[in-house]
Amino acid sequence: MDEKFVPIEDIAEHFAVSVSTVRAWIRQDLIPALKIGGVYRFKISDVERTLRELNGGDLPVEEKDGSIRVKVDPHQLALDFSPEDDV
Q: DSSP string of 34-71?
């Protein structure tokens, strides 16, 4: 079965970062995103793979509520954004 595209809020929750951080990743072209009608959609596996590559192949994981989640430190990605910025 094909993986479904998810909204930006799901990406932020999955990687334990804010929606603003995900928007900064998009602006800096760090993660793959599909824009449809002004709304971004993502495949979690594609974003995870990209973040893993940016982090030297290693992403820490944690188990929460019976599921495994990848933890990303947004500061390790050398982001350059202002919280007021919007995508």
A: EEETTEEEE-HHHHHHHHHHHTTT---EEEETTEEEE-
The pLDDT value recorded for residue 64 is 56
Q: Which two tokens stand for residue 69?
A: 């989640």
Q: Which fold would CATH assign to domain 6-74?
A: Multidrug-efflux Transporter Regulator; Chain: A; Domain 2 (1.10.1660)
pTM over 0.70: no
| Closest of 77, 59, 69, 68 to residue 22, by C-alpha | 77
Rounded average pLDDT over 32-50? 93
